[in-house]
Fold RidA family protein.
Amino acid sequence: MPWAMAANRLSGMWGEPRDVGRGRRVRRHSSMVSVRFCLCVSPRVIAFRGAARPPRAASNGGDTMSVEFHNPAGLAAGSYSHTAVVSGGRTLYVSGQVAFDESGKVVGATFAEQAERVFHNLRIALAAGGAQFSDIVKMNVYVRDLTSEKVRCLREIRGRHLGGHKPASTLVATPALVHEDLMLEVEVVAVVG
């Protein structure tokens, strides 16, 4: 079913936001609640096997935050973790960062130069939210015209900035980015205590 049709159906079942709290009857559909939870929580996300990095804990105004990175048995080990389990803390979503300088001009003529600028921009964005590279729990990387040389270069630069930290990660080859001269874009999710 196309998303627009699904959205229309959901709006009919859940009512419009303006209907809530105004004395209007808002229909609820119990099967929709279970579908929503089924999409959000999978048993595979909850059950873990194999070696895991020890949980990281921090104080959060009396609450405890912990992050556990796992590489379950049966999955190939890489320069990333397959899962990150987070409880407590604040979540910071960083939009895709590209090799733009402060004025919006592309920085770098090579993939390596652009990757360095992207990680520079990530550091600034994370710091603005009170986070650092070690707080990243998920990283999505989009690379235009992906080659094994670009993967090697990206791993080297990422390793230099992240050190031994290995958040859950995805690398996607893409035919284009927002500007024709850009070669990569990186978005992250971080959790801070």
Remarks:
- The mean pLDDT is 75.
- The longest helix spans residues 111-128.
- The radius of gyration is 20 Å.
